Amino acid sequence: MLLAQISDLHIKPPGALAYRRVDTAARLERTIARLNALAPRPDAVIVTGDLVDRGSVEEYQHLKTLLAALEIPYWLLIGNHDGRETLREVFPERAELRAAEPFVQYATDIGPLRLIALDSMEPGQSGGTLCAARLAWLAGQLDAARDRPVIVALHHPPFDCGIAHMDRIRLIGGCEELARIVGAQVIAAFFVISVTAPLLA
Question: What sign for the dihedral angle of Cα 94, 141, 110, 53?
């Protein structure tokens, strides 16, 4: 089983640059080309949030067009720059995005693994949180997957990573509860540890 993670795509409308200097669409195109060329190819790509820069429909439409070139199954998570409803509007075929409304979180099987995607976005805030409802959902999903190896993915790191500007916007609420719930059952956790977009570019 081989998984790839990319994060912080920050896709803008066609022709626009992120932070007025970064062509994130071109970087994603290069990343997709490299992923498609890997041998062996990953079984899945996990995209851990900040899919777009401002959560607009136009940005998600651009993202969807770019991702059409990816020849590997992919799974989308949201970060603090994303919009739940606009993401669902542009990706109506992705039923998992509605599995735990109002949040964008879901559980799915990737081969022998169970992927649990958590929504750590708090509207209007850069830092993340896992409220009681999201943590209870996670506990239920883990209980249902007691016989499976489990990977948990979320956008915000639940601990200091040593990058000062990232540590200021890490997971703020629910860290202790998250650690208690996942215990020894989870074999890996994916989250963003850099604002470079995307990681393979």
Answer: positive
